[in-house]
Specification:
Blueprint: E1 18-22, E2 39-43, E3 48-60, E4 68-74, H1 76-80, E5 85-93, E6 100-101, E7 106-107, E8 113-119, E9 122-123, E10 127-135, E11 138-144, E12 152-153, E13 163-166, E14 187-200, E15 209-211, E16 227-240, E17 247-253, E18 264-265, E19 276-282, E20 294-295, E21 305-317, E22 329-337
Parallel strand pairs: 1-15, 3-14
Antiparallel strand pairs: 1-22, 2-3, 4-11, 5-6, 5-10, 5-13, 7-8, 8-9, 8-11, 12-14, 13-14, 16-21, 17-20, 17-22, 18-19, 19-21
Length: 338
């Protein structure tokens, strides 16, 4: 298999985030600073209550309005105890209180921080969904708003919390999604936000990188799942300020993943080789788990600093027949904070 470096043309979305291109591609940027949320799940009589945070959290104070500061992912298993959940309506509650909101962005009790609910990657407003939806991914985001960022607690001011999820549509009462909280419409989950958020001035920085794998020959593969051309590189996390309780990093593939091949990037548009993809692994050659925060273990709250994390990229055979050409992959690197 031949490999020719080309440019990776990906639209820049925001400041202060990092993107990588593999196989000779120029670095690019994906927006958003990200903080990891700690989730605790407890069963309630009518539905599952999912509590995010529940501890001290430190977030960057210098991010511009609209920047995603935190992302929390909820699996269908956590929400409804099944591989997928049927969702017909949602209710959003200002400040986690008793007044419903249209949204999709609602304020929290922390000045400067708002939140929104994403279903299958799309932000939703309060009320009925266009149709009952099979939910495979639920995400809560914390977003910087125009208010002054002041230390405070996310704790709800009243029941039922910040978001209520129901399996069936609700009647139109003039208050978006309000009847969902009654439990008469298949309420299966309530999401609440807890924890004290402290603003920290500054963020870590991570330079854009291009990792070029060496040219490889198709006959060098020995079957589906075998790898060749392993290339070591380092994720550099620089100039982290002191004060965070934790600094983490995660990887999000730009074009998705290859099913049944852990840590493997789906080829970008323009790749011409087939039967092969690019796999990322840690220092122990364990495939990277995408969209999962991993701690920068050397970070110390009292001092901050700069750090290097050893990783590797390699070609992996994904089908019985490999054809020659170029292969490109890209991944965004998200830095998260607690």
């Amino acid at each position: 298999m031949e490999s020719n470096p080309r440019e990776c043309h990906v639209k820049k979305r925001r400041r202060n985030a990092i993107g990588w291109c593999f196989q000779g591609q120029r670095g690019w940027r994906i927006a958003s600073l990200v903080a990891t949320l700690l989730t605790q799940v407890s069963a309630a009589a009518a539905s599952t209550t999912i509590t995010a945070f529940g501890q001290q959290i430190a977030l960057p104070s210098t991010s511009p309005v609209g920047t995603i500061l935190a992302r929390h992912f909820i699996s269908p298993g956590q929400a409804c105890g099944a591989p997928t959940c049927k969702l017909g309506s949602v209710a959003l509650w200002y400040n986690g209180g008793s007044f419903p909101a249209l949204g999709p962005i609602i304020t929290t009790n922390v000045s400067g921080i708002s939140t929104r609910l994403l279903i299958n990657g799309q932000a939703v407003s309060g009320g009925n969904l266009p149709s009952v939806t099979e939910v495979s991914a639920i995400e809560i985001q914390l977003v910087r708003d125009e208010r002054t960022f002041i230390k405070g607690s996310l704790m709800s001011t009243a029941q039922p919390g910040y978001f209520t999820l129901c399996s069936r549509p609700v009647p139109n009462t003039g208050w978006p999604g309000y009847p969902c909280k009654s439990g008469d419409y298949g309420q299966f989950a309530t999401v609440d936000l807890r924890g004290t958020i402290t603003p920290i001035k500054g963020t870590c920085s991570t330079p854009d990188q291009t990792i070029t794998l060496p040219p490889a020959l198709a006959p060098g593969f020995r079957g589906v799942g075998t790898t060749i051309g392993t290339t070591a590189f380092q994720l550099r996390v620089n100039n982290c300020p002191a004060g965070f309780y934790r600094v983490g990093y995660s990887f999000t593939p730009v074009s998705g993943t290859v099913a049944n091949f852990p840590g493997t990037l789906a080829p970008l548009s323009g790749s011409t080789a087939t039967g092969v993809a690019i796999r990322l692994a840690d220092q122990q050659n364990v495939p990277i788990a995408f969209d999962r925060s991993m701690a920068v273990t050397d970070y110390v709250q009292s001092t901050g600093g700069s750090f290097s994390i050893p990783l590797s990229a390699s070609y992996v055979q994904t089908s019985p027949v490999v054809t020659v050409g170029t292969i490109r992959g890209a991944v965004s690197v998200l830095i998260d904070y607690q």
